[in-house]
Amino acid sequence: MNRPFVMSLHAITMLAAAFLAPANAQAEDPLASWNDGPAKAAIVNFVEATTAEGLPSFVPQEERIAVFDNDGTLWAEQPLYFQFMFMVDQLKLAAPNHPEWKDNPAFKALVAHDPPALAKMGPKPVLELLAVANSGMTVDAYDKAIRDWLEMARHPKFKRPYPELAYRPMQEVLAYLRANGFKTFIVSGGSIEFMRPWAEKTYGIPPEQVIGSVSQVRFDMKDGQPVLYRMPKIEFVDDGPGKPVGIYRNIGRRPIAAFGNSDGDLQMLQYTAAGDGARLMLIVHHTDAEREYAYDRKSQIGKLDKALDEANAKGWIVVDMKTDWNRIFTSD
Amino acid sequence: MNRPFVMSLHAITMLAAAFLAPANAQAEDPLASWNDGPAKAAIVNFVEATTAEGLPSFVPQEERIAVFDNDGTLWAEQPLYFQFMFMVDQLKLAAPNHPEWKDNPAFKALVAHDPPALAKMGPKPVLELLAVANSGMTVDAYDKAIRDWLEMARHPKFKRPYPELAYRPMQEVLAYLRANGFKTFIVSGGSIEFMRPWAEKTYGIPPEQVIGSVSQVRFDMKDGQPVLYRMPKIEFVDDGPGKPVGIYRNIGRRPIAAFGNSDGDLQMLQYTAAGDGARLMLIVHHTDAEREYAYDRKSQIGKLDKALDEANAKGWIVVDMKTDWNRIFTSD
Question: Using CB atoms and an 8 Å cut-off, which of residues 126-145 of chain B contact chain A?
Fold first, then answer.
């Protein structure tokens, strides 16, 4: 088999290139669901500025940390946070065992699907109700309840499973950042348990990069087997000023890029903006009543008011969903 | 430049091989500091069993989670946990402002370097003292205090900076696992702040993979700048039964490999062992009074008693430091 044969230098170059070239040498636009405009240009410019060695704006790979709010930033959040939909169903199941709930404001607001009342009280009372409902449940049983619900439940307007309401343009941003050496994290007010079962498949974000609100969990041995039980206490609310704290605890580095959509993301955006060097702060503005929802300053869910003022004042990127995105959902 | 020339198939094969071969095709032993024996063989067999596609024991890369205790497992811990050495110095500095400490048992035990008393009370009272001492400090100032101390402080016996007392054989295990697609985490009773500044350089473990005890931190805006302040409260103790809880919160998957050295690691080892498929549970047994320290059941620091019994009963790997390691410290 060692017979000599004739080969051109060109052929050798092509052979070598075939071994060396990435599969997507003729890559399609990694942000194909984004229309050309200032938002898309800002994302591309930021990535190019931080990844080109030699530029003063270059950032070493280990410092390329990007954080994403979930509800309203990576997937939809109207007419009510999807985790609240899950909780309503869970609480209805548990209600017969908890007659004391009938006067609980959070329980009443949940069952009545009353976003104004829920928004006014914030996520904590609702998380606390559910913590009581599920107290003593193993984390494995809770995980199964969430997975079963996600399979069964459908969005009231779009009639699709909730994970199919992830935003395709944001999935592209996640993949584009990772392809450029970024590590992507979710930083959400939702509970870690509710996001982990589908975040890896939907966003490419593994469970260990999902930061969220945390319920107390207790370790015990039962019949010689180690078991983790849920306890009726919320230990950490990863919302508003809790987001930089969650980032500090779970990442330990200041992000260089942050993506949000509401006032609950303001402190995470401020914290990201306050670092040195190139920064990307981006807000998804829900402006598309036809394809999704249009809401901001007056909304009870995902209220965007102070953060919009600050974005305008500081030059953060505000995505106009209606004009910037040529496609909304991953399932469109 | 397109002139034809003669090339053998063999030469083309070599050319292709040069493009494709990893740099370490003629690799040295990745566990060179380990003597041949059952411990080394168990590590290699586990990695080969979990990474060879087609074997029933194969584990997909994203599930290859390995967790490591720090004190006594990745670096030394005698005559007193190194973080306690730091705390002693910090508390001495703060003592004039806290006359109430003179009757505090944790303070007295720390200043007297009294390991039996400290061991009896566990890490929480000591962490609480320091939390009070540093309350109101920004996390950046605290980080600097730790970095300054690490630069200045020397181990009383070995007269070297503490990070140089990392165990070379364990650094090799970390690198060997990562080279085989594992993600490596620290899961320690020490505080996240004390480990993060040097864990990346010393162990190749980035801050976001350092799980430890957590103090309360508060976000605030000061002069238009976001700041994180330390608060006088310990929120989570990542020791003993806290370790599986820390793993659940921060990783969200059950590890397939766990490395410890004391009874404080027992629950982490049990939790790891209880999963399906191939598992590696390993305990570092300190048997080398000459090169390091010899201690186990009777030690006040790093007591290894119940976990040693369970290791023997369950067939977990027990490393005999004296015979299994031909080199101890990274700085030897």
Answer: 139
* Residue ranges of A 27-56 with Cβ closer than 8 A to chain B: none
Q: Using CA of residue A131, residue A137, residue A140, residue A145, what is the dihedral sign?
A: negative
Q: Mean pLDDT lowest for which of A14-23, A72-81, A197-206?
A: A14-23
Identify which of A286, A248, A282 has the alpha carbon closest to the alpha carbon of residue A265.
A282
What is the rounded end-to-end Cα distance, in angstroms, of chain A?
Answer: 54
Interatomic CA distance for residues A89 and A83, integer angstroms: 10
Measured between alpha carbons, how far is A82 from A80 in angstroms, rounded to an integer?
6
- Helix, strand or coil, per DSSP, at residue A219: strand
Pairing of β A317-320 and β A280-287: parallel
The full DSSP string for A258-276 is EEE-SGGGHHHHHHHHTSS
Task: Please say whether the beta carbons of A118 and A109 come within 8 A.
Answer: yes
Q: Give the CA distances from residue A265 to residues A166, A330, B104, B203, B281, in Å, rounded to whole numbers and listed in that order.
A: 18, 23, 42, 33, 41
**pLDDT, tens digit (0-9, with 9 covering 90-100), for B15-69:** 444 444 444 445 689 999 999 999 999 999 999 999 999 999 999 999 999 999 9
Q: How far is B153 from chain A (nearest CA, A)?
A: 24
Q: Is B228 on the interface with A (CB under 8 A)?
A: yes
CA distances to A36, B280, B299 from B303, rounded to whole Å, are 63, 21, 5
3-state secondary structure of B284: strand
Q: What DSSP assignment string belongs to A83-123?
A: HHHHHHHHHHHHGGG-GGGGG-HHHHHHHTT-HHHHHHH-H
Q: Structure pTM?
A: 0.90
